[in-house]
Design brief:
Length: 433
């Protein structure tokens, strides 16, 4: 969909939400929305970007949006699911994923979690030599159909956001390939364990240029080739290439697209597409970010030190990273009137604040927008990934409802509740029970 098409669609969904009472200045001052048609379109573009063979499983990274109905939608659209905790694993199973469609990654898997994954047949990527020893112990007494791999750290360096870069020389994730002696130890680990048939890598999440990601994956593929050459058998049969395709938060354009990413991979590592390896991908943000938005009423406005400030109901409780690291995680803001129509008045610089009781609770500083009035609605695009699934319970602010939206051929918007708003339970209500 073109950039302006996405903005039109957002306004269409917003106006319908006001009309249908899903946004209400008294009863529902804040809500999240996911454009489910948009999600399906994005999944189609992902599937079309990769060849049909070798076999590819696109496992959605659950941490980007772990709402069970969202995971169900992705399952029905043909995706698998990547999980990194017992909680996400339970959500994936609730969403109906078959164990063979689930991949379990985490640097801190407990023995019980590993036993569960291995007995169910969920794919497991070991993160360390210690975890490999633990797998040995478990597999000595449990039968498993799981695909088992090792997460290697290709140590290709960081992208623009250090906290999101997992392939640095000292990252906590995976087994570092270039550390003294590790390549030999890894080769021996594969030699000793014929059930070790996958190689996994994930270079980072947001802020990693495509070339850096492609270089990391190329090193994982080269390592798989090295294992198979040295062992004289095709033991490694699959490469899990992780996620991390960066998202453009500046406009409605989806750049880079999955097609560009696959072109870059073909240049850097043609062997990946030779047919010798099955592929798993683990995209999260790039599947959902641009298909979701947050909407909040402006409760009051004021002018302080000459600058207009809009006090809204969306702050650190729903946009935690943006509030605490505004330069790294900037978000666009759009001004709408109380009925949801885009405001057209002359843009002026203003602060857009949240409801939390600390001064830094600002979604945007000095942002140029049509002047917001009390009763208006601010829309925060591109919040479909991570924002809805990662609440911050500051000030006991409740998690808002999240609604899925579909627009039918006649232009009517129908909504599906993806998460109810969290109830507020005053102590007096409990005392009465
Ligand atoms: C977070 C994560 C992903 C998803 O990253 P995105 O940037 O959301 O695509 C994939 N794989 C692993 C191992 C992760 O930790």
């Amino acid at each position: 969909m073109s950039g302006s098409g996405k903005a039109d669609r957002r306004e269409w969904i917003l106006r319908a939400a006001v009309q249908q009472g899903l946004l209400d200045p008294e009863a529902a001052v804040l809500a999240g929305f996911i454009d489910l048609d948009g999600v399906n379109e994005t999944v189609r573009s992902l599937r079309n970007a990769f060849p049909d063979s070798p076999r590819v499983l696109h496992a959605f990274a659950a941490k980007a949006n772990c709402l069970v109905p969202v995971l169900e939608e992705l399952r029905v659209s043909g995706m698998g699911c990547e999980v990194a905790s017992a909680g996400e694993l339970a959500q994936a199973l609730d969403a109906g994923f078959e164990p063979a469609q689930i991949v379990f990654d985490s640097p801190a898997k407990t023995r019980a979690e590993l036993v569960q994954a291995l007995t169910l047949g969920i794919a497991v990527n070991a993160d360390s030599f210690q975890e490999l020893s633990r797998l040995d112990e478990i597999l000595a007494t449990h039968r498993s159909d799981s695909r088992i791999g090792v997460r290697i750290n290709p140590q290709v360096g960081a992208g623009s956001i250090t906290a999101m870069s997992t392939a640095t020389s000292t990252s906590k994730f995976g087994i570092p390939l270039e550390d003294e002696g590790n390549r030999q130890r890894l080769l021996q680990a594969y030699r000793d364990r014929p059930w070790l048939t996958w190689v996994h890598t994930h270079v980072g999440s947001q802020g990693c240029p495509l070339d850096l990601i492609a270089r990391g994956i190329a090193k994982a593929v080269e390592f798989a080739e090295e294992v198979n050459d040295r062992l004289g058998r095709r033991q490694v049969t699959g490469i899990d290439i992780g996620g991390g395709l960066p998202v453009n938060f500046d406009s409605d354009e989806t750049t880079p697209g999955f097609g560009t990413y696959v072109d870059r991979l073909r240049e850097q590592t043609p062997v990946l597409f030779s047919g010798a390896y099955e592929i798993i991908t683990e995209f999260g943000r790039s599947v959902l970010a641009k298909n979701g938005f947050t909407a909040a009423y402006v409760e009051y406005t004021k002018t302080v030190g000459g600058r207009p400030i809009a006090i809204t109901h969306a702050g650190a409780q729903v946009a935690t990273r943006t509030v605490f690291a505004p330069d790294t995680w900037p978000l666009r803001i759009e001004a709408h009137d109380p009925r949801g129509r885009a405001k057209q008045s002359r843009p002026v610089p203003q602060d857009i604040a949240g409801p939390c009781c600390f001064a830094g609770d600002l979604l945007a500083r000095n942002r140029t927008l049509p002047l917001l009035d009390a009763g208006d609605i601010v829309v925060v695009p591109d919040t479909g990934a991570y924002y809805f699934s990662t609440p911050f319970h500051y000030n006991s602010l409740p998690e808002p409802a999240v609604h899925g939206a579909r627009v039918n051929a006649g232009g009517r918007v129908t909504f599906q509740l993806l998460r109810p708003a969290q109830a507020v339970h005053p102590a007096s209500a409990l005392a009465g029970t």
